[in-house]
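Quick question, first post here. What does this chain look like in 3D?
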Amino acid sequence: SSGINAEWPLRPGIYQWAVKLPDFTVLIESDQKVLLKSAVNELLTVKLAYRSVDLKDQLQLGTGKIIDVRSIREHFTKSLAMSVVKNIVSTLNELKVNESEFALLQQIILFNPHTEGLRSNSIQGVKSSRRKIYQQLSRITTPDRFAEMLLILPTVQGIGNEFKEQLNEHSMLGIPKYMENFMEMANFKQKL
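> Answer (accepted):
Ran it through. Tokens below.
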């Protein structure tokens, strides 16, 4: 729907990706917004990691620029970047997650039936969508790989939540340089 696209403050790529998912477009606009807003930090984190799977101690920004995480000076940014490399990039690389598997992992992140603010009559549909995505992923991989891929998600959620908390704490005071650096790293373009 054009209304959500016009007011969605994110880099349009995430919205454009989401509206290509049939189960997403059947949701009413307010539920689409709630799911996107809830998942954005996790989606940006996992996309940053996936772009960087062929790199060692480096992250590829959404702009294509590659940075060495060891050269980052700000403690918070360096800590998050190292966590992305050590906990997510390394696992994606070790598992050799392909594009199809990665696309399904992103959908699992988006279709979270426990998202706060989701209308009660949409929760069952979101659960059903996530169940279908789990089934698709389990069909294209082995049980061990399936389990290991799902074990990435709590780490992605933790990093996304840490970033969101820092943004919330600092949004009233203006965004410090280290937050701007991580926002650039994740290609985070949300208006605050």
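Confidence is low (pLDDT under 50) at residues 4-10, 175-179, 188-192.
Strands lie at 58-60, 66-68.
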